[in-house]
Amino acid sequence: xxxxxxxxxxxxxxxxxxxxxxxxxxxxxxxxxxxxxxxxxxxxxxxxxxxxxxxxxxxxxxxxxxxxxxxxxxxxxxxxxxxxxxxxxxxxxxxxxxxxxxxxxxxxxxxxxxxxxxxxxxxxxxxxxxxxxxxxxxxxxxxxxxxxxxxxxxxxxxxxxxxxxxxxxxxxxxxxxxxxxxxxxxxxxxxxxxxxxxxxxxxxxxxxxxxxxxxxxxxxxxxxxxxxxxxxxxxxxxxxxxxxxxxxxxxxxxxxxxxxxxxxxxxxxxxxxxxxxxxxxxxxxxxxxxxxxxxxxxxxxxxxxxxxxxxxxxxxxxxxxxxxxxxxxxxxxxxxxxxxxxxxxxxxxxxxxxxxxxxxxxxxxxxxxxxxxxxxxxxxxxxxxxxxx
Length: 389
Description:
Elements: H1 3-24, H2 28-41, H3 49-68, H4 72-77, H5 79-104, H6 109-118, H7 124-134, H8 140-163, H9 169-196, H10 203-221, H11 227-236, H12 238-243, H13 245-269, H14 273-278, H15 280-305, H16 316-324, H17 329-340, H18 346-371, H19 375-388
């Protein structure tokens, strides 16, 4: 098949995913994964080399954007709850899924580690979207959920980097570059945005892509992954981008129009239909393990931290627990990294990504349908939040 025809078909799928997402109110990322799965298994389209490259860049770009959405001030306000909820939200699913994959499913230890990391995540993208839709972003409840989500995803990024670290000369080069980037790049990027953000050629966006690609190259040479330093870089720039939404809007336009859809399409194209049929029981077990351990880790802390009174509406504790149980972007990134590095095969990848997608959909629907704060209670919470701030 001509590469142009392949590109046209995939572009059509990305367009369709966006329209379906808008009409049904479902995350475009989920639709893109499903359509990628359809393209590979039923249209027999193999991912071309350019799609593989753009998918790798898309994963890094998503990581940066996720970090840039965290509000450091809100996190500091609720540091204790954030660390407890976010830490247990990561550690319990990680340990349980790793142990089950290794001891009961008889996966190799590297594959089990990928399973633990991929299924320990909380989806910052899903959480952020739900909080915006529910009007909770500026409330005490929303602050705690966003901060805890960052802690969970930081644990994911850290463990993905450390568990598969293979030290060599290039590793030290990568680590040195990462340190220098995190020390000097935030001020450099902020200066670029202030000076060049009104230029039609967008030098500041080009600077970001230069740093992303250089970090990816050095990470590849050092047998590591650029996900952690790029995530932290986004975090360090979060306050600047909070005051300069125009720069974020430009980057998000480039990202979500072209690059990140390639990441999710590519992920879907690696899911094997036969693997899903053969492993449906394992998928169910992993899903129950993830949701169950998230509940065990998060709900008791939420019960202690969130009184069943103002400024927290009824159902807040379960609402928080369900949102912390979601997974999507980091789970897919971790799974795709494991596949590309040879730690898991395509059948195992299919299992993990399917669980990740289900964990994005099932808890979100339950949270929004049964536990989202009622409008009258939300008004009270916003008012109380404003008084405390």
